[in-house]
Amino acid sequence: MTEEGEDVQTDTTDAEEQLPPKERRGRARSTHSGEARPQLSPEERNAARLERRAKKAAERRRWRTASREKRRAQSSGEGTPPAEHKGTGRPRVRQGVVVSDKADKTITVKIDIARQHRTYGKIVRSTSTLHAHDEANDANAGDTVRVVESRPLSRTKRWRLVEVLERAR
Q1: Residue of 36, 61, 100, 101 with fewest CB within 10 Å of its CB?
Q2: Cβ contacts of residue 168 below 8 Å, gap of 6+?
Q3: Which CATH number fits domain 93-166: 2.40.50.140, 3.40.50.2300, 2.60.40.10, 2.30.30.100?
Q4: To which H or E segment does residue 34 belong?
Q5: Domain spans of the chain?
Q6: Which residues are CB-neighbours of 163 under 8 A, at least 6 positions away?
Q7: pLDDT tens for residues 148-157?
Q8: DSSP category for residue 38
């Protein structure tokens, strides 16, 4: 084979690797002649199995490192967690309406959640209330606020006020 032929060969294998797995399997099956392969001994079958597993593990490692790099690139831009957070994960951020601000340095926030039912597809609405720490007593009832998850501050407070998005009229 010439060098040009080898280049063509590698280009087709690269193109096949870019295909989705289902299409790749379909193409492999279409090239199959239909004849049975020779029977293998248990040792040969085990060796072939170990080889397939090693190949799949290498593919998984490549995919994981690529996705990790992609996540790092995204997190270096916008959407970074607040500077006060020193944990390993990213704190959850919620948006809701202040229901009560009667307690000192504490607000009660109502969060409305609307999501599709996973089987029936109907929109199911639910609400949850949570208590958030408001150091400056900045938020009032009716305000739309953004809160972030934090360490436990009291028996019920696990959230901290980040900003008041919209003031009540």
Answers
A1: 36
A2: 98, 140, 141, 142, 143
A3: 2.40.50.140
A4: none
A5: 3-75, 93-166
A6: 145, 146
A7: 999 999 999 9
A8: P
